[in-house]
Amino acid sequence: MFIKKSVVNNDPKYQKLLVLITILLFVAACSDPEVSNEKRTISGEISIPETIEMNPPINLTIFHAVSGIGFQEHPLYEIESFTSDKLRFQHTFDYDAKGNRGLLVYAWIDLDGDGINCTPLSRIDLAGVAVNEEFPKTNELFQVEITTPCVGPDWFYPSKE
Question: Whole-prediction pTM value?
Fold first, then answer.
């Protein structure tokens, strides 16, 4: 008197629904969590040697001074780059405070006009950096002095002291 029924339903509608739910769960599980960025505006002043007569554009890059949590902490996580034609700048960007602290503004001048910060054949481009290790708690004026030839941001930060 017992009727044997299959546990698996072979109904095509049921199978399509099961496949759709599986795909949705897979996409939800594999997608990145929502990043909570906040708009931040920084401003600064750049000083260059008086010997530079022309007014080339200044290339600037913003970095988190320290990024990561716990043993994964590392210096200099790039946020974004921009250029300025003036010695004073103001820039708004998306800042992700989770797991990041401090802010570094790295600037360099392309004196040879090749679009690259130094090459083995041309070593005349100059660079400088300003660091605010308390950012975003404090948002002070960044003062970048561009005087050092052919170095990247990791030459300046973290300091060797």
Answer: 0.76
| 3-state SS assignment for residue 79 | strand
Q: Which amino acid is at 96?
A: D
Q: Is 31 left (phi over 0), alpha (psi -120 to 50) or beta?
A: beta
CATH number of 37-156: 2.60.40
Cβ contacts of 90 within 8 Å, gap of 6 or more: 41, 42, 43
Cα–Cα distance for residue pair 46/52, rounded to 1 Å: 13
Amino acid at 84: S
Convert the pLDDT of each residue in 82-131 to its tens digit: 999 999 999 999 999 888 999 999 999 999 888 889 888 888 999 999 99
Closest CA to 96 of 62, 143, 141, 52: 62
Residue 95, strand partner residues: 38
